[in-house]
TrEMBL record:
Residues 167-194 form the Threonyl/alanyl tRNA synthetase SAD domain. Keywords: Aminoacyl-tRNA synthetase, Ligase, Metal-binding, Zinc. The keyword Zinc applies. Its cofactor is Zn(2+). GO terms for biological process: tRNA aminoacylation. The keyword Cell cycle does not apply. This is Alanyl tRNA synthetase-related protein. SUPFAM superfamilies: ThrRS/AlaRS common domain, Translation proteins. InterPro entries: Alanyl-tRNA_Editing_Enzymes (IPR051335), Thr/Ala-tRNA-synth_IIc_edit (IPR018163), Transl_B-barrel_sf (IPR009000), tRNA_SAD (IPR012947).
């Protein structure tokens, strides 16, 4: 199984070992690495893209329990140099961390986050009401989020003995998460809470980072 360096390191470039490279039916190639810097699509987050040597990595996904790097051309087996697109990684990390922060803030109003989607242009967090849940507006959420961003709460990542991973900011209760994040909330910049909509007992908060 591929060692997942991206879970415990912010390194975006380094030496890797190509285990194999197999042609795909869509014209791309499936590349397996001994260890990877690339975050695969999942957990509500898009995959990293980048390069192995000079070959473009255009998508990374879990396929039958293996991390597969889809490339535009074949990659030679053996030692190689991998680079993650740092600008996109930072954007995805900001969106994911912003989603966590919104989750924490709305939980303060007695709502329980049940799912999230952290893609550019379509980010949202969905909540289910708990007993005594309070009314919240997009404006309220944004103001409280900005206060915590100003405090620059640090991110803490904990790898549990059972293999699961927890991510928290400051004093907030951690969420189980396999995604990438900013090192502290000050790196988020500004959150734009676009809407907070109720439908069939669920509250959906739409947002972006600017």
């Amino acid at each position: 199984m591929t060692e997942r360096i991206y879970l415990s390191s912010e390194i975006l470039a380094g030496d890797v070992e190509v285990i194999d490279c197999v042609p795909r039916n869509d014209g791309r190639y499936s590349v397996r690495l001994k260890s990877t810097l690339f975050h695969p699509q999942g957990g509500g987050q898009p995959s990293d893209i980048g390069w192995i040597n000079e070959v473009a990595v255009v998508h990374v996904a879990m396929e039958e329990g293996e991390i597969i790097h889809q490339t535009t051309a074949p990659v030679t087996q053996g030692n190689a140099f991998a680079r993650v697109d740092g600008e996109l990684r930072q954007l995805y990390s900001r969106l994911h961390s912003a989603g966590h922060l919104i989750g924490h803030v709305v939980e303060l109003a007695i709502w329980h986050p049940i799912k999230a989607h952290h893609w550019p242009g379509e980010s949202k967090v969905v909540f289910k009401a708990r007993e005594d849940a309070q009314n919240v507006s997009a404006e309220d959420i944004q103001v409280i989020c900005k206060n915590f961003i100003t405090e620059d709460l640090p991110c803490k990542v904990t790898q549990r003995d059972d293999g699961l991973r927890e991510v928290s900011f400051g004093h907030f209760t951690p969420y189980l998460c396999g995604g990438t994040h900013v090192t502290s909330l000050g790196q988020l910049g500004d959150i734009k809470v676009q809407a907070a909509q109720m439908k069939k007992g669920h509250l959906t908060v739409y947002y972006d980072v600017v």
